[in-house]
Amino acid sequence: MLTLQPSQILFFLTLLMGTATTFSASSWFMAWIGLELNLLSFIPLLSSKSNRYSSESSLKYFLIQALGSSLILASAPLSLYLQDITTITITLALLLKMGAAPFHFWFPPVMQGITWPQCIMISTVQKVAPMLLLMMTQLGSSPVILMTASTLSAVVGAIGGLNQTLTRKILAYSSINHMAWMLAAIMFNEQMWTIYFLTYAMVSSSVMLILHTYQIYHFNQLSSFSVYSKPIILALFLSLLSMGGMPPLTGFFPKWLIIQQFIFSKSIIWLSILLMSALLTLFFYLRIAISSMVFSSPKMKTGLPSSPQSILLAMTLINFSPIFYPFLGLFLY
After folding, report:
1. DSSP string covering 82-100, please?
2. Is residue 254 part of a domain?
3. By three-state DSSP, how is residue 330 classified?
4. What GO molecular function annotations does the UniProt record carry, in alphabetical order (predicted)?
5. What local confidence, expressed as pLDDT, does residue 139 receive?
């Protein structure tokens, strides 16, 4: 499955240390140091000798993150004179660092050039620090910027993935769409964001681990799901439905909570845009799932040994039952 070198383990630990530094920082300077530590730890993890596109993705990621960090630094002298512009600048910089629309242009190309384990990290772990800082920023700013970014992320993530045949780009646009729901959750309260982020991290990781195990990067490669791995096909199908928020799967629970908050706050138009975009994302999830079934070839015996299959099935069980709802609900109290 996954083999890690000692250097990769070291950089991963310093990456987590950078996120923890940002999370526990008492000043913007320490938060910035945590972001830089996180960035400098992630660049070596992106680089790979076996992948010729990783250098390009690493450079793109570094330049974008450096631009975001420079904007945060540039907002420091502005805070002496123009407090409102400072808050707006920091918010835009954080949206750029996490790849939310309208600053999403770098995210799909970077994901296209890296491996699936790196895709898991850039879609989950790397979004924690900017979103935590965004929670602190939005307390003193107007909600218009986050509402606009959430709406644009929903539309871009839904429409951008419709015409794609590359699985990494599809999941990149899917991540942008889920970011719209996370930005909405940030507007409501921290507990709701925590529930949504943890659920998204578990569900998307289960999908990407299946695609990594079978090395699926294009629709044409879905034929490697042979008739001898029907449990894996079912696991992928249910995991994708869970990512789309189909009840009663696990991915539906955080969307349900956010929908309730939208109704209580009477933000019906914003909610309608998010729901319409969720239907479009469900369409291209179903394209992957149905293609994995239709393209199956009985001549291709590519079934995995029982050990990796059992591990994958155990990891994807989180999507199959609402039994996890009470545990997720604990974050609300």
Report:
1. -HHHHHHHHHHHHHHHHT-
2. yes
3. helix
4. NADH dehydrogenase (ubiquinone) activity
5. 62
- pLDDT score at 158: 93
Alpha-carbon distance of 219 to 275, in angstroms, equals 26
* Cα-Cα end-to-end distance for the chain: 37
Cβ atoms of 251 and 242 closer than 8 Å: yes
pLDDT, tens digit, 9 for 90 and up, residues 2-34? 566 788 889 999 999 999 999 888 888 899 999
- Cβ–Cβ < 8 Å for 107, 99: yes
DSSP 224: G
Least-confidence region, from 67-71, 139-143, 276-280: 139-143
Q: What values do phi and psi take at 166, rounded to 5? A: -95, 125
Domain membership of residue 267 (yes or no) is yes
* Cβ count within 10 A of residue 33: 15
Rg (CA), the chain: 20
Q: Is residue 1 part of a domain?
A: no
Q: Is the pLDDT of residue 306 over 50?
A: no
Residue of 206, 266, 268 whose CA lies nearest to 232: 206
Instruction: Assign 238 a pLDDT band (cuts: 50, 70, 90).
Output: confident
Give the contacts of 300 (CB within 8 A, at least 6 positions apart).
Answer: 223, 224, 226
pTM of the model: 0.89
Find out whether 296 and 225 touch, Cβ atoms under 8 Å.
Answer: yes
Other Cβ atoms within 10 Å of 213 Cβ, number: 18
Instruction: Evaluate the CA torsion angle 301, 302, 305, 307 in order and state its sign.
Output: negative
Provide the number of structural domains found in the chain.
Answer: 1
Length of the chain: 333
Mean pLDDT (whole number) for 304-314: 57
Domain that holds residue 60: 6-332
